[in-house]
Amino acid sequence: MPEARGLGVGSALLAAAERWATSRGIRYLSAGIHHRNVDAVRFYSRHGYTDAGLSLGKRVD
After folding, report:
1. Cα angle 56-17-6, degrees, rounded to a multiple of 5
2. According to the model, what pLDDT value does residue 17 have?
3. Which of 28, 20, 22 is nearest to 48 (CA)?
4. Torsion of CA 5, 12, 39, 2, to 10 degrees
5. For the chain, domain boundaries
6. Other CB atoms within 10 Å distance of the CB of residue 31
7. Which residue ranges in the chain fall short of pLDDT 70?
8. Is there a contact between 46 and 58 (Cβ–Cβ < 8 Å)?
9. pTM of this prediction?
């Protein structure tokens, strides 16, 4: 929902997920987003996520 952007909901949810993970001893989180989704890349980058390498995939029909 574009009208929900900028209200802090995503940031609050991400912060809660990070607290949950930390409380359970999880030390690394990964965001599975497509590199062409510039809004998602910007969002996660703003929250400290960085390029963590390469993920390969193959479409099978």
Report:
1. 90
2. 97
3. 28
4. -20
5. 7-46
6. 13
7. 1
8. no
9. 0.81
